[in-house]
Amino acid sequence: MQTIKRCKWISNVVDVQYLKYHDTEWGQPMHDDVKLFESICLEGQSCGLSWLTILKKREDYRKAFHNFDPEKISKMTEKDIDILMKHPALIKNRPKLNSVVDNSKVFQKMKESNESFSKYLWSFVNHKTIHNNDSNRITTSPQSDAMAASLKKKGFKFIGTTTCYAFMQHAGMCNDHCSDCHYNPLKSSSTTSNVTTTKSLDISITNVEVKMIDEAQENLENDIDEDVSSSPTIVVKKAPKIKKTKDTPVPKKPVNRKKKATVSKKAK
Questions:
Q1: What's the predicted TM-score (pTM) here?
Q2: 107-156: per-residue pLDDT in tens?
Q3: Bias category Basic residues: which stretches (predicted)?
Q4: What is the CATH number of the domain that holds 85?
Q5: Which residues are tagged catalytic?
Q6: Structural domain containing residue 51
Q7: Which of 153, 110, 145, 105 is nearest to 125 (CA)?
Q8: Is residue 199 part of a domain?
């Protein structure tokens, strides 16, 4: 049986859900306002964690946040967040949970001003997918820098340039599939008129490093993302003093082994 060729970063992954995400979602152009809103909020939740951690909790987040309906989320209160903080499946980080509500309010303001969320986001790539013609795992770009700065100005939270780039990859604004990946959108496209090609960037990490990073992040899970205020206090104990007894040996001073310089007598 012929093996399906996938991107190098996913080639050693055995998790079925992660593979399905790569095959059917990652890098596929997305234009629905609500889907884009969900994606950008979930990317914010994954800050400090591996994406797989959030992907496995995605359905729980959808139930908790009204299927990411911005209008319904914008009406959520602090009491609602208190309840979500006790949710066993969600990341227990209040600022992150609050950010979804804050972001929904910004979304609603844009909607009331007849501003399309999709057109606004796609404008940062000139409404065309950027095809990075290499297999490097880059994490930021000039476009993600500009998007992050603009979203922050509008009031979005947990939205740095790295988060924006990961979002752009998911939403198909950047196609970072390897050129020989079976699921590269270019392989099934008969035209490249809607694709912008960029030169290779020198920022890269190996597949082994990616796997090590993901494993380390998955092991951290919720612990890495708890509020600093909830971190346990570390108490440093002083070493106990040793009581001297008659039998306690007294350390000797080091002997100076250097010989004194010999002064030679002058010849008479």
A1: 0.71
A2: 999 999 999 999 999 999 999 999 986 656 789 999 999 999 999 999 99
A3: 254-268
A4: 1.10.340.30
A5: 21, 43, 51
A6: 16-230
A7: 145
A8: yes
